[in-house]
Design goal:
The protein has about 190 residues and is of the alpha+beta class. It has two helices and eleven strands. The strands form two sheets. Strands 2-1-11-10-7-8 form a six-stranded antiparallel beta sheet, with no helix packed on it. Strands 4-3-5-6-9 form a five-stranded mixed beta sheet, with no helix packed on it. It starts with a helix and ends with a strand.
């Protein structure tokens, strides 16, 4: 449902951007027509030169600023604050706060070292690799990456019913409401 909403918003935005392009072309056309008229029909010299000056200033401002800015629309624009471990019934079992972190390692604590999100005591711990996946923050965006785990990592975007298996070492953007599957263990991004 969220992906459908994002598609609808993107369609609306593309229609808006089409109108913005049309309006920009119309404005530039009117400005060019005014300048051409003022230069070819010298009846009221001061009024025509003022029209040319105002047109030149408006065109310069539009060119200098690059015209209207497009707003960026993306899923998960809210800041990711925590990762929630869910049981088979969808109940919260454990939470890890990630706000302010830049990298979070998911796996099991052991002789190889410690991880940030330890799943060694969850129901499907035997399927979780010691270093299963990693979350990385770039600016305000979060990405998940499978670290060549044995059981794989899945991602279900918020509002979608389709779960995609991640390709090792290929980061995928995540946002609030997304569900991450570490083997059969479910982690909700909040």
């Amino acid at each position: 449902m969220t992906e459908l909403r994002i598609t609808e918003v993107a369609d609306v935005e593309s229609k808006r951007s089409g109108w913005i392009v049309f309006l920009n072309v119309l404005i530039y056309g009117i400005l060019a027509g005014m300048v051409t008229y003022a230069l070819l029909r010298p009846l009221h010299y001061k009024l025509q030169m003022a029209t040319v000056a105002v047109s030149a200033i408006m065109a310069s401002v539009l060119v200098w600023t690059g015209g209207p800015r497009k707003r960026e629309i993306r899923e998960g624009a809210e800041a990711v604050a925590k990762i929630v471990l869910l049981d088979d019934d969808g109940e919260r079992v454990k939470e890890w706060f990630v706000k302010g972190e830049t990298s979070v390692l998911i796996g099991k604590n052991g002789h190889r070292g410690e991880v940030d999100i330890d799943l060694s005591d969850c129901e499907y711990a035997s399927l979780v690799s010691p270093e299963h996946a990693v979350l990385n923050r770039v600016g305000d965006r979060w990405y998940i990456e499978d670290t060549e785990s044995h059981s794989g990592t899945g991602l279900r975007k918020a509002g979608s019913s389709e779960t995609r298996r991640l390709v090792a070492e290929e980061p995928q953007e995540i946002g609030t409401g997304d569900m991450v599957f570490i083997a059969n263990t479910r982690l909700l991004v909040k």
